[in-house]
Amino acid sequence: MQIGKTKVALVALDFIGYYQNGGYYGVDQVKKMLKLELGLTDVIVASTHNHEGPDTIGLWAPANKDGKYADYLKWVDRRIAEAISKAAEPANMAEVRARFGATNPERSPSLKGLQVRTTHRPPFFFDEELRAMQLTRTNGKVLATLINWNTHPESLESRNQEITSDFPHFVREAVEKKYGGTAVYFSGDIGGVEIIGDAESRTGLEYEEINGKRFPLTAGHRPNVSFERTQTIGEAVATAVFQALDAGSNERVDVLTLKSQPVRAPVTNPGFKAMIQAGVLSNYGADKEHPEVNTTIWHLRVGPADIITLPGEVFPELIYGVEQHKRTDCPAANTGRPYEPAVLPLLKGKYHFILGLTPDELGYVVPGYDFSAGPGGARVTDACKDPKVPNHYHETNSSSDQMAPAITCGFVKLLGGDPAKYEACK
Ligand SMILES: [Zn+2]
Question: Which residues have CB atoms below 5 A from the ion given as ligand 1?
Answer without folding.
Answer: 313
